[in-house]
Specification:
The protein is α+β, with helices and mostly antiparallel strands. It has helices at about 20-30, 30-35, 90-95, 130-145, 175-190; strands at about 10-15, 15-20, 40-45, 55-60, 70-75, 80-85, 100-105, 120-125, 150-155, 160-165, 195, 210, 220, 235-240. The protein has two domains: about 10-110 and about 220-225, DNA primase, PRIM domain (Alpha-Beta Complex); about 120-210, Alpha-Beta Plaits (2-Layer Sandwich), CATH 3.30.70. Helix 1 runs antiparallel to helix 3.
């Protein structure tokens, strides 16, 4: 199936990176990113006029999107949202043509939306503290592996790191987030001068924020291999 490309020469990033470059990137790495996108509801981060202009996060699939692209309706707090799902290269190219720079994924799959199959810890530094961030990630992973969890580390393409843990689809989001919160509190108790679970930025100081709130129903995390809307177009890169 051919996907029509519109405005291929539209500049999306500084240094002359065009929409067609973004599309070709996603086409070339489709074999890597699609397993992470498959059967997951998406939030699209779109920049129709480039990253220096207005962006918007799109959950509801636009009415003009072709019927061959799968979607899933979800009711949450009396609001019905019709999410897009990307299971093949054609859909990926179509969404990239909408100037979707970043793909944010649910932590559950569409057949069992309320039971996540992964748990994510987002290590978010308040300032650039690369050495401390790396040390924290390794120490955190050591603790998680000690209790029998498999941990995958990912550079988000922004300033933080994600620790991603595959889990059996047996707990709901509330249980998973409570479990994640208990672990995060324990880790922070070992180094309270450098680590925190404090949500309010003004109270974090220069500490690394361990964010567990992505483990909630309807919450999302950046997809591995997704581009990021930053000047040099970095990507969310799995490290191990």
């Amino acid at each position: 199936m051919d996907v029509k490309i519109s405005n291929p020469d539209k500049i999306l990033f500084p240094f002359g990176i065009k929409k067609i470059d973004l599309i070709k990137y996603y086409e070339n790495i489709s074999g890597l990113i699609l397993p992470h996108l498959k059967n997951r509801l998406l939030m699209l981060e779109r920049y129709p006029n480039g990253i220096k202009e207005n962006k918007f996060y799109q959950k509801n699939i636009p009415g003009y999107v072709p019927k061959w692209i799968p979607r899933k309706k979800v009711k949450s707090e009396k609001v019905i949202t019709n999410y897009v799902i990307c299971n093949n290269k054609e859909t990926l190219i179509y969404l990239a043509n909408l100037a979707t720079i970043s793909f944010h994924i649910w932590l559950s799959r569409e057949d069992k939306l309320r039971t996540p199959d992964k748990l994510t810890f987002d290590l978010d530094p308040s300032i650039k503290r690369k050495n401390l961030l790396n040390e924290t990630a390794e120490g955190f992973r050591f603790i998680l592996e000690k209790i029998g969890l498999n941990v995958f580390l990912m550079a988000t393409g922004s300033r933080g790191l994600h620790l991603v843990i595959p889990i059996k689809r047996e707990m709901d989001f509330k249980e998973v987030r409570e479990f994640a919160g208990e672990i995060a509190d324990f880790v922070c108790s070992k180094d309270p001068e450098n680590l925190t679970t404090e949500q309010r930025k003004e109270k974090r100081g220069n500490r690394i924020f361990i964010d567990t709130y992505r483990n909630g129903f309807t919450q999302t995390a950046i997809c591995p291999y997704s581009a990021r809307a930053i000047d040099k177009a970095p990507i969310a890169a799995p490290i191990e």
